[in-house]
Design goal:
The chain has two domains: 176 residues, no CATH class; 89 residues, no CATH class. It is 53% helix and 14% strand. It contains 14 helices and four strands.
């Protein structure tokens, strides 16, 4: 029986495959956590408890969709069709559109879902995160302005502080609230969940503001940039400014096992580790933690080099609008 390891657990969760999670938990000493998952994902227990009858029916249907999605590994197209089918009783117009165009029906949910919750006094975001469509839902929010220093200049962005988390998409669900979207880029700046950040910490100033600020910068200058490149560049920015290795070691653990572009974060983490491995060690992929610890002072300058090389490629028009042509 193996000892439960949080990093391994989170890494498996973020693959979005419940069967792999059950296999791992069955081999560890955390029988209580395994039983909790089985009662929720395989049973009739509901994890999302909004305590508001005006939104409970939709959340129950949404959670049923999540249970299906996490136990039936599928394509993004199949997930989109399933969430439309699940939620169309609440959105008749999307249901009608689905008869002619499932894709348009899914896109309609981007409007209908936030509007549904807004009418009931909540805030919501709907979209696809790492190949699975999902909902983020919270109770209130406030807005301010921040100036963010980035490797290629400073920019002013609008920052929305979200409070009263109900759910933060499918990652939040499969980890039972441990991990989920901390925030995301918007047309004017970025958002973040108040409960998840100490605003004086590097986690907030770097992993959130600078990461999302880089997304804002890149989307403004390269609106067709794919999510894999967006994440690659934003994660490099984190490496430039962070001085502790915790985030880097998380990337090392969570990175994709192969060049699979369907999981943008994991793929970007793999490309980042490969790039730093080549710069610092002269090898294709270094995975030894002690080796990285010994070279910790070289990570930030190497990450800056990788970012500037990628930017130079963009400036020269060598980028094909797809992903990682370097």
């Amino acid at each position: 029986m193996k000892k439960f390891d949080m990093d391994t657990y989170i890494s498996i969760c973020l693959q979005g495959d419940y069967s792999k999670l059950v296999t791992y938990l069955s081999e560890t000493d955390d029988a209580e956590l395994l039983e909790k998952y089985r009662s929720i994902i395989e049973g009739d227990t509901y994890f999302l408890q909004p305590n508001d009858e005006s939104i409970t029916p939709l959340l129950r249907a949404y959670e049923d969709y999540l249970k299906w999605a996490l136990t039936n590994p599928s394509t993004t197209k199949e997930y989109e069709q399933k969430i439309v089918e699940t939620l169309k009783p609440f959105f008749p117009r999307a249901g009608f559109i689905s008869k002619f165009s499932p894709k348009l029906a899914y896109l309609a949910l981007h409007v209908h879902v936030p509007r549904y919750f807004r009418k009931r006094g909540y805030h919501a975001n709907f979209g696809t995160i790492s190949h699975i469509p999902c909902i983020s839902l919270w109770r209130k929010q406030t807005t301010c302005t921040e100036v963010v220093e980035l490797p290629e200049g400073a920019l002013q962005i609008e920052v929305v502080e979200m409070d009263g988390i109900i759910t933060r998409c499918w990652q939040d669900y499969i980890t039972l609230g441990r991990v989920g979207a901390g925030g995301w880029v918007t047309k004017k700046g970025c958002t973040y969940f108040k409960e998840k950040y100490d605003i004086e910490s590097d986690d907030f100033k770097v992993s959130l503001l600078k990461h999302e600020g880089q997304h804002f910068f890149d989307r403004k200058n390269h609106p067709k940039m794919k999510s894999t490149d967006l994440e690659y560049r934003a994660k490099l920015v984190e490496m430039i400014y962070l001085r502790e290795l915790g985030t880097f070691f998380h990337f090392l653990t969570a990175m994709a096992d192969s060049d699979d572009r369907t999981r943008a974060h994991a793929y970007a983490e793999r490309k980042l580790v490969q790039g730093l491995s080549q710069k610092i060690f002269g090898v294709e992929l270094e995975t030894n933690r002690d080796a990285w610890e010994a070279k910790r002072d070289e990570i930030a300058p190497a990450a800056r080099e990788l970012l500037l090389e990628h930017s130079a490629m963009l400036a020269k028009g060598q980028w094909d609008g797809k992903s990682f042509v370097i």
